[in-house]
């Protein structure tokens, strides 16, 4: 199946470079581009992409607001694409907020071409781009900069998980892959996938990215723990 992608970035050269790279892949089709978040939302509504590559900082409407509009559309709009945020090392709270809004992760703009291609495929498949160590560090940094008290709602929802599911959620939040979780808990990788599915279902979460945010905000995991 071909993955439909749109690229939303205020730099024309970035859009052109990413479009050329992705369009060269037999399983990826670039169906649109936009120079700002407002037009990006419009292009997405029109083309129904599987994945939106969304720059964080743009004029007219930034990537955070655009991501919110795409992931929480108004009544009557049923299409919800996967959103992959594009950013740099001087990232700020925008990315953390985007993950809370339901973005599937983020990618550094200077990542190798193979990483961009892989990221699009991973996100299109319904996974969250949270494996790289840089992502673990950045998410921990966000949580450290924005310490959140243990919230009653999330804490109570944790009570609905089994001890094993709670262990799995904690390891997800620490950035471990399914294989690493399986090794840590001495489980089959398929069993880990089953636990993750149950965790997401019980907590009403979209994907792994939201699971990480939930774990920090519920107090299950704290930075530097």
Model description:
The chain has 225 residues and is an alpha/beta fold. 52% of the residues lie in helices and 12% in strands. It is built from 11 helices and 5 strands. The chain has helices at residues 12-23, 37-47, 63-71, 93-101, 113-124, 133-145, 152-158, 163-173, 178-185, 189-203, 208-218; strands at residues 3-8, 28-34, 51-55, 82-87, 106-108. A 5-stranded parallel β-sheet has the order 2-1-3-4-5, sandwiched between helices. The radius of gyration is 17 Å and the shape is globular.
Output the keywords.
225 residues; alpha/beta; 5-stranded parallel beta sheet; 11 helices; 5 strands; 12% strand
Short description:
The chain is an alpha/beta fold. It is 52% helix and 12% strand.
- What portion of the residues fall into strands of 2 or more residues? 5-15%
**What order do the strands of the largest sheet run in, or round the barrel if closed?**
2-1-3-4-5
The topology string of helices and strands comes to EHEHEHEHEHHHHHHH
The portion of residues assigned to helices is: 40-55%
Sheet with most strands: 5 strands, parallel
Strand tally is: 5
Molecular shape? globular
**Termini gap:** 42 Å
Structural class: alpha/beta
Unreliable stretches: none
**Mean of pLDDT:** 84
Please report the number of helical segments: 11
Rounded to an integer in angstroms, the radius of gyration calculated over CA atoms is: 17 Å
């Amino acid at each position: 199946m071909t993955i439909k992608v749109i690229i939303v970035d205020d730099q024309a050269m970035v859009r052109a470079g990413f479009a050329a790279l992705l369009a060269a892949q037999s399983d990826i089709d670039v169906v649109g581009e936009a120079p700002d978040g407002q037009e990006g939302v419009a292009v997405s509504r029109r083309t129904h992409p599987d994945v939106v590559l969304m720059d964080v900082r743009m004029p007219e409407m930034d990537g955070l607001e655009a991501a919110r509009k795409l992931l929480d559309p108004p009544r009557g709009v049923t299409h919800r694409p996967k959103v992959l945020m594009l950013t740099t090392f001087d990232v700020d709270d925008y990315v953390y907020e985007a993950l809370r809004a339901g973005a599937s992760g983020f990618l550094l703009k200077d990542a190798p071409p193979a990483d961009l291609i892989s990221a699009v495929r991973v996100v299109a498949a319904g996974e969250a781009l949270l494996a790289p160590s840089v992502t673990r560090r950045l998410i921990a940094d966000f949580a450290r900069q924005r310490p959140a008290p243990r919230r009653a709602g999330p804490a109570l929802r944790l009570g609905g998980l089994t001890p094993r599911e709670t262990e799995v959620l904690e390891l997800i939040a620490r950035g471990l892959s399914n294989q690493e979780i399986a090794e840590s808990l001495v489980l089959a990788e398929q069993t880990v996938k089953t636990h993750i599915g149950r965790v997401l279902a019980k907590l009403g979460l979209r994907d792994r990215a939201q699971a990480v945010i939930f774990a920090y905000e519920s107090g299950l995991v704290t930075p530097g723990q």
